[in-house]
Amino acid sequence: MGAETLVNNGEAKAPLILGLQPAALIDHVARVDWSLLHQIPGERGGSIPVEFKELEHILSELKKHILTSVDDPSPMKTMAGGSVANTIRGLSSGFGVNSGMIGAYGDDEQGQLFVSNMNFTGVNISRLRKKTGPTAQCVCLVDAYGNRTMRPCLSTAVKVQGDELTKDDFSGSKWLVMRYGIFNLEVTQAAIRFAKLEGLSVSIDLASFEMVRNFREPLLKLLKSGDIDLCFANEDEATELLRGEANASPEAALEYLSKYCQWAVVTLGANGCIAKHAQEVVRVPAIGETKAVDATGAGDLFAGGFLYGLVKGLSLEECCKVGSCSGGAVIRSLGGEVTPENWQWMYKQMQIKGLPLPDIRN
Predict the structure, then answer these.
(1) CB 3.0–4.6 Å: which of 55, 203, 234, 253 could bond 153 by disulfide?
(2) Which PANTHER family does this one have (predicted)?
(3) Distance from CA of residue 224 to its chain's centroid?
């Protein structure tokens, strides 16, 4: 299926994969030196919400701390962001999968930027609602090693509420892609109800180790409901999930998740990933031939590659291999959007691994 929207009976065909991101988000991604990271409260490497004043302060300080690099002439980028948006945009632009977004954006410059960026990459935006108010923003600070520290500003931002969702948002789609978040629990639960009524499979990403640590109970309840078909966790989130257990290894977390989800995946950064479906467990190494410029979006693009594999009917191991190719493609440049050159790099990696290439070429 091409990236173009297919039309039948005068109506656009429903997206195969839908992403729920209640609040549209704009990312300001920059490579910075350590001293700026020391000034910012909270743990490095994590993601902690900040108020608008703090966001403005960080943005104003950035200029003094930017690291320039020979490989990347633009040390700061502003683009549509958010974990789910990264996954959906990748599925649409890199894999040619008919994909759409559910969410809300503000009537400001950031909102317009989000919509045009998504639209430009072929994402179906007909389920995005425009609201009066500001669009969410996030500063993504990347250190010299490619590690990222996020400071999102969401408190005043517009977002879609659970009671605004309708059956029509979901009808005709096959997958619903979400990220776990306590502030979006009500809309997440409403979306899952509609998805299940309409026969969609549900995928969830565990978001961040802080989110798992601070809001573990509602997460466990969500997993135990049996409504989550696919769960993605990184190593830190997996450890946090089993905190206090005698064995909190990624393998133990995979085993735990697979009790409730048909597919469970734990990504291990440079060590690749492990995944389980039914009785099958696979371990797939990361792609060695890539240099991490910025880890932003690695998990999101891995999820996109894995979902492409699932809708193509690939084996569990092949799904992981596609994920490692797309995850490897995004970390080669700044931000959660894959550049055209890096999509080409990914197609080459897929070819080397004997994986079926998408029907599109950028």
Answers:
(1) 55
(2) OS01G0105900 PROTEIN (PTHR43320:SF1), SUGAR KINASE (PTHR43320)
(3) 22
**Considering the chain, what percentage of its residues have pLDDT values greater than 70?**
94
Q: Are 282 and 303 in contact (CB under 8 A)?
A: no
Domain ranges of the chain: 17-23+82-133+155-353
For residues 256 and 237, the answer to whether their CB atoms sit within 8 Å is no
Looking at residue 280, its amino acid is E
Q: How many CA atoms lie within 13 A of 100 on its CB side?
A: 25
- What CA–CA distance (Å, rounded) separates 81 from 187? 19
Q: Residue 328's pLDDT band (boundaries 50, 70, 90)?
A: very high
In 3D, which of 274, 359, 254, 361 has the Cα closest to residue 319?
Answer: 274
pLDDT at 73: 64
Q: Considering only CA atoms, which of 282, 295, 279 is closest in space to residue 322?
A: 282
| Edge-to-edge strand list for the sheet holding 25-31 | 76-81, 25-31, 136-142, 148-153
The arrangement of secondary structure in 17-23+82-133+155-353, i.e. its CATH architecture, is 3-Layer(aba) Sandwich (3.40)
86 Cβ contact partners less than 8 Å away, ≥ 6 residues apart: 297, 300, 301, 304, 330, 336, 337
